[in-house]
Amino acid sequence: MCNLYRMTKNSDEVAKWFDVKNAAVAANLAAEIYPGYPGLVIAGGTLRSMVWGFPLQAKGARGQPLKPKPVNNARSDKLDGAFWRSSFVERRCLIVLNGWAEAEGEKGAKTRSWFSLPGDDLFTAAGIWRRSAGWGDVYSMVMTGCAQQYADVHDRMPVLIAEEDRPVWTDAPPEDAFALCRPWAGPLDLERTSEPWAGGG
Length: 201
Known about the structure:
The chain is mainly β and 201 residues long. 12% of the residues lie in helices and 39% in strands. It has 4 helices and 16 strands. A hairpin with a 6-residue loop joins strand 10 (99-104) and strand 11. The longest helix has 8 residues, at 11-18. The protein is globular and about 45 Å long.
């Protein structure tokens, strides 16, 4: 699952790139986006800042409420479940990113391996969003099975949305959007690094 991605452009650059209205002008964004951080999404034809992850209320051993945890990934095979269904049917969005990272290596010594699209400074992944009481508008990234050639890194990957499919994901009926929930068939750049996975989130 994706727990870290990169977005190094500012909101003005992103809005111009995708030719959408910019409603995220004052957004203070980090270049590396972790669950619970704000990120840029295109929803309703507008670039917006939302928090990455649907808040899930947790309880402690004695039943006391704990700080909510961000559920930042939605598996495509679970989109018809109660937690995700209404967002998938009614509120799909495009997540803007430069690349995403997966952890590789032995436990305690995992490093970051970065995926990106060759030749594309920016691309989009499938997202769904909703309003929350405590965190404002939030989004989750839709995941599917990984392309076979990269399965040694991870068994899942984000649903990447090609330019021609963006209107389908955001505006078409749910069954047409769901048909896009498949492994990316095109090439990907994979950069294996020595950068430790832990630290920073």
